[in-house]
Design brief:
Structural class: alpha/beta
CATH class of the largest domain: Alpha Beta
Largest sheet: 6 strands, parallel
CATH architecture of the largest domain: Alpha-Beta Barrel
CATH topology of the largest domain: TIM Barrel
CATH superfamily of the largest domain: Alanine racemase
Distance between the termini: 59 Å
Number of domains: 2
């Protein structure tokens, strides 16, 4: 329930206030005033809203239509069942809608630009490792061949349990020892397109040695350090001074090493990281342009 905040002194002189359960309520306060004050239409997007009773609601799908569910009524029902607060409410509908939105946005952009390639998104398990989330992302993303990103052996094991789409990808980032690489190679043998991203030069010899020992052709990616740097959260993880990724000189050495091992054809992915919550689209454009020049130089 959204109630009026405590009126300022100037407002109190011209309005009558009543007390309801310890909260001061301004009778002249409208529901639209609360919506505007708290910016529900801004942060709620199309998923959260306020109904005519002044209650915050979540919009959920009901078949082909949608309906508003009052969070106040939902919490009251949980309390009646003996549930203690605070409690975490998760709505799979929002996950499904977000996956559809990002994939359809890429599809529309590629259609408008006449781009003939494909978009294959991946969900980083490190964002939320809970089973309910990973399983729902895998289920909802199946129609888009949506994959998973694993940054450790434990995350790779979890990804293998939910990755059943032969057209999707598992992208392996983070530190990789021989055991991690073997697990990724065995996943490839099972028919799961598992990309092993080289983030440090010393990882490549292990990948080459283990792939030859097991007789499994790998899918290899390379993470590079771009000169382009952006603002936003985790912006220090991007740019040519970042900890992870290869410099241009190291990239050339890796390509030469792959060519010598007759494995250059296994190189399938160019990876770079800019950060999170990037506020300026120009930063994304500059980084993509630089990455495209690096790819062209191959």
């Amino acid at each position: 329930m959204i109630e009026s905040p405590v009126p300022q002194p100037a407002q109190r002189e011209s309005s009558t206030s009543t007390t309801n359960g310890g909260a001061v309520v301004n009778p002249s306060w409208r529901i639209q005033d609360a919506i505007d004050l708290y910016g529900v239409n801004l942060w709620g997007k199309k998923y959260f809203d306020v109904n005519d009773a002044g209650e915050v609601c979540v919009r959920l799908r009901d078949g082909d239509s949608s309906k508003m569910v009052s969070l106040k009524e939902l919490v009251s029902g949980l309390k009646d069942r003996g549930r203690d607060l605070p409690i975490l409410l998760r709505f799979p509908d929002i996950l499904d809608a977000q996956i559809s939105e990002i994939n359809e946005a890429f599809r529309n952009a590629m259609r408008e630009a006449g781009f003939k390639g494909q978009y294959r998104g991946v969900y980083p398990i490190k964002v939320n490792q809970q089973e309910q989330v990973v399983s729902e992302v895998s289920r909802a993303g199946r129609k888009y061949n949506y994959g998973l990103e694993a940054g450790s052996k434990a995350e790779l094991v979890a990804a293998l349990a939910y990755m059943h789409d032969p057209e999707g990808f598992i992208v392996c980032n983070g530190y990789k020892d021989a055991e991690f690489i073997d697990l990724a190679l065995y996943a490839t043998r099972m028919g799961i397109r598992t990309l092993i991203v080289v983030e440090m030069p010393e990882e490549l010899p292990i990948i080459i040695e283990r792939s030859k020992a097991l007789g499994i052709e790998p899918y290899i990616g390379i993470r590079i350090k771009l000169s382009a740097k952006s603002s936003g959260h985790w912006n220090d993880s991007g740019g040519d001074r970042s900890v992870f990724g290869l410099t241009v000189m190291q990239l050339v050495e890796v390509i030469d090493r792959l060519r010598e091992a007759d494995m250059l054809h296994a190189l399938k992915l160019l990876h770079y990281h800019q950060g999170s919550q990037i506020p300026n689209i120009r930063s994304i454009r500059d980084a993509a342009a630089e990455a495209a020049r690096v790819t062209w130089s191959w």
